[in-house]
Amino acid sequence: MKVKSLCTCVVVGMLSLSLTCSVGAESLQNEQLINPSMTKSDNAFLSDIINSLDPEDRENVTYIDETGKVLVNKESLRQEVIPLEPVSQVTYKNSNSSLTSVTDTTYKNNRYKDSTGQLYTLPVLQPKPACMGNHSLTPMDFSTNSASFPECRDLRNGPYRSVWSHIGFAWASTRVHLPSAREIRDNNSGYNGSTGFIYMGGWSNTNMAVDVGLQHSTKYNDWAPFMLIEGVKEPYSFKPRFEPDQEVQMKFYVPSDGNIALTVSGYADGEKISRTYVEPAPGWTATGNGNLIKRTTSIGQIQGQQDYNDGSYIRKVRWATSYIGTNSEDNIPWRNSQTYDYCSMPRSKVVVDYVHGGEETDNIFLD
């Protein structure tokens, strides 16, 4: 009996030791995962994405794939993602107090709402070039086809100021001033949905357009990050919102072929933060081949409902300390020699304090 009892104790002890080791090994594996709340395959995929980013951009990373699946390196970041969906039909009262019904055809390009019903007017993705119509996934010969460049024209969705780089870059960084409450008025209570925007982006080797940056909120008087990518999925907005009247660091680049990244660093809710958003974008190349990068200040309006006299304005949007290149280790100051062209549309509403290709202060007045 004593021997049996001894053997039982040994077996139990061995089982306890085995279970302890097993639990310990599992805990160690979980600690090695980027985000234990995600599967190992998702962790492995996100690890590759993070490793492709600039080292300083890896702290808070959100990746959204073609299907809308969200991968984050911190689970708390998942709550910051705000999916947007097209608005089908809305009725507005215009300045003459008559009701104007806005159809799905009018709205489908740039009017969206979130799950709470809050409305968003986003930029309309500009084709490159104008004559192409529907975009093709076939890369163009940019060295010989002059029509591959954008044109300065009225997009019928609000005034804007854009600076376009030459083709061949994959990375751009800048500092930009976010206007204070006294420096912006976006009259989005009317039928045209005027909304202030400060953003980057451009076009890929396959002419696929990208607009990513910050959108002003009249309600909260702050700036929300947004991602708008042609032909992939519906756009996204994000929290936290960046405070007004500050200079933020904004970076747009191609960390790997077919993926684009936006990093914004500045103050939000009194705290200095940095957020990096990554999404797939067809045709964008990490070498810069065929890419054209832009910087834009605009007052976005509902397409086809633009009003260049609605009283909106955005002032003192200063872009400065701009760099451009192929990556964080291979870049130079963005100057005139790196710039293809500029566009102020319409010229009568846009006032620019120009210094050079990488520095200017934009003002738009709709009076």
TrEMBL record:
Coiled-coil regions listed: none
UniProt cross-references to InterPro entries, sorted A to Z: YrpD, YrpD-like_sf
Secretion signal span: 1-25
Keywords noted in UniProt: Signal
Domain of life: Bacteria
Gene3D superfamilies on file: 2.60.120.1270
Keyword flag Lipid metabolism: no
Protein name: YrpD family protein
Organism field: Paenibacillus polymyxa (Bacillus polymyxa)
Lineage: Bacteria, Bacillati, Bacillota, Bacilli, Bacillales
